[in-house]
Design a protein that fits this description.
Structural class: alpha/beta
CATH class of the largest domain: Alpha Beta
Strand order of the largest sheet: 5-4-3-6-7-10
Distance between the termini: 32 Å
CATH topology of the largest domain: Rossmann fold
Helix content: 40-55%
Radius of gyration: 32 Å
CATH architecture of the largest domain: 3-Layer(aba) Sandwich
Number of strands: 11
């Protein structure tokens, strides 16, 4: 435990002074007390419990003062708390390279198995959404707490041509912020091309421009995150780093996973043998821009360990937390207890 205002702890020197003052008061009371002919009979009548309980209320008051001083010093402690992450988007590459068998039985099968384990290990209150990307990005399962729907969505993955990593990030971001109208096509085609692609009548009134979202510090959004897994490199779609910058402006962290043989592998695609290798440099840059982490998984076992690490990160997190309120609440509780005991046993406040 540490203190943000340690200079306030000097006030604790008053505690032994208060104890000394209390002892002096007791001695003075004893000196001027009525003298009985038989003190032993009085003590026997009171009993040891009666004699001790008169000190309970002052002791409670002393504890209240001590805890109050500790609260003023603003104590902090590293505690393990439930993570604030409550919505997680799994963005998974379903390009044809995921057919490669350098990861047994195939990259796709291993990725599906690991994703299922991750889903099942999440707390029941965490909503999970699933985005797949190849030539385009597709929301195959909106965020939900229904684990059966998520597992069914994972089983429905279909392999496609090309790899649009940036599209996967942008659609995942749009899923986290559905009210902001983040349009994947706008970022894919560019604003001008996107407007031309919409055949509108000249009589159609122009819609009011949507207000631009406020830019926040990278990694500051605590209610959601994106986990992106890919075994390849961008072949089309928006630049992944531009998409990562958009996520960073929203404060969303994008954890990236490079999957497959690190030196690359060959897969059979429509009868052709094609060499594939993921872009580790870009994946590291995405994680760095968004204040997240990059992971490498070269096997099914590695991938499971990566998801276990991410699961622990989202479920429980350790952080330094100020506990002044807790100390103040405890001080108030002892103060009230002392007052109650004093009124019950002596009909007055100590």
């Amino acid at each position: 435990m540490t203190f943000l205002a340690p200079h306030a702890l000097w006030l604790l020197l008053a505690v032994p002074l208060l104890v000394g003052a209390y002892v002096l008061v007791l001695r003075r009371r004893k000196k001027y007390a009525v003298r009985y002919t038989n003190v032993g009979m009085v003590r026997a009548a009171l009993g040891s419990g009666q004699r001790l309980r008169r000190h309970v209320a002052p002791a409670c008051m002393l504890l209240a003062i001590t805890l109050g001083i500790a609260a003023i010093a603003r104590p902090t402690a590293v505690v393990t708390l439930p993570s604030e992450q409550r919505k997680i988007i799994l963005a998974i590459d379903v390009s044809l390279s995921m057919r490669a068998s350098d990861v047994e039985p195939t990259r796709m099968a291993a990725a599906q198995a690991a994703a299922k384990e991750f889903v099942q290990d999440q707390p029941s209150d965490v909503r999970i959404g699933i985005v797949t990307f190849a030539g385009t990005a597709l929301l195959v399962q909106p965020p939900t707490r229904d684990r059966d729907d998520l597992l069914s969505a994972i089983d429905r993955f279909e392999l496609q041509r090309n790899t649009a990593i940036g599209s996967g990030i942008i659609l995942s971001l749009a899923t986290l912020f559905p009210d902001e109208g983040i349009d994947v096509e706008t970022y894919t085609l560019g604003p001008a091309m996107h407007e031309r692609s919409r055949a509108k009548s000249l009589d159609t009134p122009k819609a009011d421009p949507k207000p631009q979202p406020k830019v926040v510090p990278p990694g500051s959004y605590k209610n959601g995150a994106i986990i992106l897994l890919t075994d390849g490199r961008r072949t089309m779609g928006p630049d992944p780093l531009d998409a990562a910058k958009l996520a960073a402006d929203h404060g969303v962290r994008v954890f990236t996973v490079g999957f497959g043989t690190q030196g690359g592998a060959t897969a059979d695609v429509d009868g052709m043998s094609i060499y594939m290798r993921f872009d580790e440099e870009t994946l590291k840059a995405i994680a760095d821009v968004t204040q997240a982490q990059y992971f490498y998984a070269g096997s099914a076992t590695d991938l499971r360990k990566v998801y276990e690490t991410l699961n622990a990160k989202f479920v429980l997190e350790k952080k330094e937390t100020e506990i002044s309120a807790l100390a103040a609440a405890a001080a108030a509780a002892f103060l009230i207890a002392g007052a109650v005991f004093s009124l019950l046993w002596s009909s007055r406040l100590t």
